[in-house]
Amino acid sequence: MLLDAAARPVEQAADVPADAVAVLSGEGRLQKLDFWLRYPDYLADELLNDYATSRETFLLDLAGEILDSEEPELRSIPMLRYKFGAYEPLDMALSILVSEGLVARDPLIGGRRILRNNYYLTALGRDVARSAVDEFPVLSWYGNRVRVVVALADGSGLTGTALRRRQYLQRDYAGTGLNEEIGSIAERARKRLATLRAQAGVDA
User: Fold this and answer.
1) pLDDT at 116
2) Considering the domain boundaries, does residue 87 fall inside one?
3) What is the dihedral of CA 144, 48, 41, 103, to 10 degrees?
4) What is the number of domains present in the chain?
5) Is the distance from CB of 176 to CB of 75 less than 8 angstroms?
6) Which domain of life, per UniProt (predicted)?
7) pTM, full prediction
């Protein structure tokens, strides 16, 4: 679902899998998108950052939807902070998607190392991603949050470097030790939400 929302349309070419319909380039980019999906409290705080700049009330409302609930506690899936930010090995999850024909992975090799990973969404993968919520309504949360994550990333430039730079502006994130689990900022984000609501004269 994340690849379906974030990947860009691809034209058929000799180096593109025959059944590919979209591509997302860069493991770093995918990791950074995954971080916001797996940490609703950080996602909400970024929405508050955008609200503080734009004063668009829908951003405050959306952050409130996340922080007024137990979503940060119930939906959080921890990640480690690695050299370039939040990290989770993707091989296991991707191997399942690849084996089922939903995704094709095509690394760009330079010398003896991988320069960039290209993640291709296949036509079957798109069909599964878009029918999943209809068939399994319990997945609707993921569909909703994926759209928010991608919209936030689009506003940040979407590149892995731009997303990493923005995420490192969070002091708790940046202050996490290498190979340590990134902790929650739900309490801080909720206090900030309350402050911004009071300033705006908005009731919870």
Assistant:
1) 66
2) yes
3) 40
4) 1
5) no
6) Bacteria
7) 0.90
Asked if residue 198 belongs to a domain, the reply is no
CA 41 vs CA 71, 90, 104, 112, 129: distances in Å: 8, 22, 31, 39, 25
pLDDT digits (tens, 9 = 90+) for 128-146: 999 998 999 999 999 999 9
Which residue type is seen at 204? A
Q: What pLDDT is stored for residue 110 in this prediction?
A: 46
Instruction: Give the pLDDT of residue 14.
Output: 62
Instruction: For residue range 91-121, list pLDDT tens digits in order.
Output: 888 999 999 999 998 765 544 555 568 899 9
Rounded to whole angstroms, how far apart are CA atoms 204 and 182?
Answer: 28
Range(s) of the domain holding residue 76: 2-191
Q: Where are the alpha helices (DSSP H) in the chain?
A: 2-6, 27-38, 40-54, 57-67, 71-74, 91-99, 123-135, 140-156, 160-167, 171-174, 186-200
Pairing outcome for strands 113-122 and 85-87: unpaired
DSSP string, 148-191: HHHHHHHHHTSSHHHHHHHHTTSHHHHTSPTTSBPPP-HHHHHH
